[in-house]
Specification:
Strands 1-10-9-6-2-3-5 form a seven-stranded parallel sheet, covered by helices on one side. The protein has one domain: Rossmann fold. The chain is built from seven helices and ten strands. The protein is of the alpha/beta class. β9 (191-196), α7 (202-210) and β10 form a beta-alpha-beta unit. It has helices at 9-31, 45-51, 80-87, 106-116, 156-164, 183-187, 202-210; strands at residues 2-6, 34-38, 61-65, 67-69, 96-98, 123-126, 149-153, 177-181, 191-196, 228-233.
Length: 240
């Protein structure tokens, strides 16, 4: 794992997008196309704002959605489908983008699993949650399942983070379940770009980078990945 620290989240976003774009273009040059995973949440704002302006032949890029709540419509302010359409998919001419439909549950997991099995991932853009989660794999995460997507239960710390970031009006409005890409599927990505700004993430960053690899800190599994870049700002890196 290579760690890159910036003064602030804007510079973090620029550096993460630059590295991600470099790796996408490398994949295109080698095989004529690229497959990517795109995350959502407040941690990805600055990175996505930069990435959409990069000189990439998006017409040969296929994108996959990392996770989505179960039980909210695409028009809901917290919907990750809505987020991705507005901040990424509508801004670049992708070959294809595979959203997660949170209302289909197990059927959707099977559908997406079959599609992603035919698309080896070149670059995964991810973040780390305040509870150390990777995607919506909250602790204790399932490190063993080979299923590409699965239905997961969201713990209270995860749900409090979503409330704290302003996505929902009350704690009870935050869904208790989601569809998430699995840990093993994320780890199959050739490269991982992990963007983690803000002081509230500093404890999770320290545990993920310096602690033992454990399902209780799901993001710690990236220590075992051969090509991960972790982009931090001064606040998120403050406990390292």
């Amino acid at each position: 794992m290579e760690i890159i620290t910036s003064e602030n989240k804007i510079e973090l976003g620029k550096k993460a997008a630059e590295k991600g774009a470099e790796l996408i273009k490398k994949a295109i040059s080698e095989k004529g196309e690229a497959n990517i995973i795109v995350a959502t949440g407040a941690s990805q704002f600055e990175m996505l704002a930069e990435l959409v302006n990069k000189d990439i032949d998006w017409s040969v890029v296929t994108g996959f959605h990392l996770d989505e709540y179960i039980g909210i419509e695409e028009t809901h302010p917290a919907s990750f489908r809505k987020y991705l359409k507005e901040r990424f998919v509508s801004l670049v001419p992708l070959k294809e983008f595979h959203y997660v439909n949170g209302n289909a549950a197990e059927k959707e997991c099977k559908r997406l699993g079959e599609i992603i099995s035919r698309h080896p991932i070149d670059v995964a853009f991810v973040g780390i949650g305040e509870n150390g989660h990777l995607a919506f794999n909250d602790p204790p995460a399932d490190f063993e399942t080979e299923e590409p997507y699965l239905v997961v239960n969201l713990d209270d710390d995860c749900r409090k983070q979503q409330l704290g970031e302003g996505w929902f009006p009350t704690f009870n409005d935050v869904p208790k379940q989601a569809i998430s890409m699995s840990i093993r599927q994320i780890m199959k990505s050739k490269h991982i770009i992990c963007s983690v700004p803000d002081k509230r993430k500093s404890v999770a960053v320290k545990k993920s980078v310096k602690g033992v690899v454990s399902p209780m800190v799901p993001a710690s599994v990236m220590q075992k990945h051969a090509s991960t870049w972790l982009f931090l700002d001064e606040e998120s890196a403050s406990k390292l």
